[in-house]
Every structure is written in structure tokens, then in C-alpha cells.
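Risk register update: the risk of archive-format incompatibility is retired. Evidence:
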Amino acid sequence: MPIHREGYPSILTVSAALLLFNALLAGLVAPGVLLLTLPLSALLLGFFVQFFRNPPRTTPLDADAVLAPADGTIVAIERVPEDEYFHAERLKISIYMSALNVHLNRVPITGTVRYARYHPGRYLVAFHPKASTLNERASIVLEDERGRALLVRQIAGLLARRIVTYVQAGQAVQAGQELGFIKFGSRCDVFLPLTARVTVALEQRVRGGETCLARLDTPD
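Archived output:
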């Protein structure tokens, strides 16, 4: 399984720390203790490796489809006011990413980045209703060639302490390409036009860059 570049520093740090820990423990206590600590260390290292995995995805070519920007579970589908960019009511779909999900975020539509901004904030649990506006987050507005726009919000969770965004305002992007990365449990919200037709359901599991969340209307 390919490992995302964001993972190499963390995996190397954890590997070095575990190696040192086991070496010191064996020297200070007894070599036999490694029979217990080595399997536990392997499990911990395995967690970090799987967290930063970067599985290949097949992105469908569909100009009207809004693809999931993240792997995870649909935890909210609701109409809400969006006051950062659109200043109007929008249809929000929220995806919760557990520590076991792939945490690479992907671009949901082909178009142009119209807005990208990072906001420092709190670290409420990612599924908290106010996490979208109170937690550390990054907001990215994308507009396709037909003028249809949506906002993707990367949201830090209780354990997440770093949000990375790879795109910037004015950049042309393709559906399925890397949007960013959130380290550890977190959430990703998508704010759609009210005319969008939702194609997922609550508690459904989705795959970033592959699952269609909704279909956009065709402007006259």
C-alpha cells in the first residue's frame, strides 16, 4: 500500500522512538521483555503506517457529480446558513473521518479555486455540531466552468493538530486530485447549492475521489 508523503516524518519519528525505547528497555530490564514490547511496538507502528496510506482511486468523469472529498461516514445532510463566503443558506453534507480512515482529501469537482483560507480554532470532537465554525479549519471554494460553486471545509478534530491544504486561490484543479491532508480524527464538510440532488444517505460510508455525494443542477 503506498504511503502518502505527509506520513514519512511521523513514521520515521515513531520508528526511531520505538527502536530506542525497546533497546533501552532490553538493556535496563531484560532482553526477554522484548517478547512483549516488540509486538506492541509493531502494532503502534502499523497504526501510523495505515493512517498515512494513500490507496489508488478511480475518479469518474462526470461534470455534474460532486465527489466525496474524504473517506469516512456521512454524519449530516442538512440546510444551514453559510456565513463565511456565500452568506446564504446552503446544503451541507458532513463526512466524519475516524483514525482508521484514509485522511488524504481530494478535490470534489473540476474547476477553479476561488477562495482558500485557513482559520485557527478549537479542537472539539469532529462530530460536534459547532465544530464546523469553532474548530481549526480551512475553507476552499471551487467553481466549475458552468459557474456552479461549492465550499469544502477541512475541520480538525479532538486529536487532529495539523491541517494541510495543497491548493490556492486562482488555481485550476481536477476532480480527484489531492486537496489536502488532515492528521488524525477529523471531519470534512461540503456546502452545496440548494438545488443539488443528494445521492448519499446518513451513516453511509464513502470513498474520497470516487463516491458521488450529489449531482449539481444544469444552469440554463
